[in-house]
Amino acid sequence: MNNQRWLSQNFFIFFFTWGVYLQYWSGWLSEAKGLTVKEVSLIMGFGLVARAFSTMFVFPFASKYLSDKKLTQFLVICALISAILYIPFNHFVALFIVTMIFSLFYPSLLPAIESSASTLVQQGKVHYGKSRSYGSISFVISVFILSIVIGYLGEAAILWCMIGYLVIMLGLQAMPAPEVLSTKPTVEDRSQKFSMRSLWKIKGFPVVLIIVILLQGSLASYYNYSYIYLQKYLEVNTFYIGIILNVAVVFEILFFLKVDHLFSKWKTSSLLLLAGSGSTLRWVIIFAFPNVWMFILSQTLHALAFAMSHYAFVQYITRTLPKQQLSNAQGLYSALATSLSAAVLTLLGGYLYDISPGLAFLGMTVVTIPAIIIILITKKTYQY
């Protein structure tokens, strides 16, 4: 199996499921299962906590005993079983319990695949950005296909699409994988030398992690309030909102396609500085120029606000950490940078949105500007 092709295929099918989960899961619980908005918010909020717990503790622990291939297979099987458990239930308590189970396994697939990607990049024959771009492409395709399916079959089809995609993913895991991903961890790999706690002793790692937590967290208002902002505040037709939001994904795809050729020799600190500057500029533009065309222009900066900081972290751990620590690092990143920080900043964004919609976006500079300052202060000291 060609390593590059294997990684591209796994990113592609996973992000097919991710498109269902991120874009439609809340709507499915509300429309197909009949839950109130308050009940959905409660379930998804606690699901986010379960996701953070799983990616920070359960996933890194399991990675000490299972090979990358076996761990991914295990997570897919558990995610598929827990997704099927949704079928017979419609009551809030039952759906809450099933969602907690689902959140313990399914979201951990993302750091599992990212960890495999970092391992393959360390072998020197895989371009991360090229394979990751397939994930972004499949996300767009997934959302587009599901919007058509829902139009014909209704919201009930959302769960069946998720189950179907997970079945395909399980079939893909049955195929041969790169040999390095089938290597079972040794007793030495489970020693204190490679514990999660030891990550904090690695020069530069805590600083880089804090920076990406701030930068990834700053996307909270964009992910949660962009649709409402365009629909209610800028009065954009619903048909065009999906197109506008996908502009960001298009530039994300273009970034990942070219990043290995354009930025592979850059220092991590330089990448993060560019990401922080682009992110700050994005939120200022939306606040200062509240019109559709400037919002569309700001969407081009998603390549910096999200993709650049994500690539910078992957580049840093790939260059700096041994293979045994990649799962720990990915688990921390997934839990803190893409889950908990987003949850906290979503509350801040919601408070500011009630005052003035534009403030919800400008308010995110409260973390991007400190991130820039931290980079400028620490880049020479820690040499990252």
From TrEMBL:
Keyword Cell inner membrane: yes
Highest taxon listed in the record's lineage: Bacteria
GO molecular function: kinase activity; lactose binding; lactose:proton symporter activity
Major localisation: membrane
InterPro entries on file: HcaT-like, MFS_assoc_dom, MFS_trans_sf
Transmembrane segments: 12-28, 40-59, 71-87, 134-151, 157-177, 198-219, 239-259, 295-314, 335-353, 359-378
Keyword Transit peptide carried by entry: no
Bilayer disposition of the protein: Multi-pass membrane protein
GO CC terms, sorted: plasma membrane
UniProt KW keywords: Cell inner membrane, Cell membrane, Kinase, Membrane, Transferase, Transmembrane, Transmembrane helix, Transport
One Pfam family named in its UniProt record: MFS_1_like
Domain Major facilitator superfamily associated: from-to ranges: 6-361
Localization (cell): Cell inner membrane
NCBIfam families named in the record: mfs
PANTHER family, sorted: 3-PHENYLPROPIONIC ACID TRANSPORTER-RELATED, BLL5896 PROTEIN
Protein's UniProt name: 3-phosphoglycerate kinase
Gene source species: Ureibacillus sinduriensis BLB-1 = JCM 15800
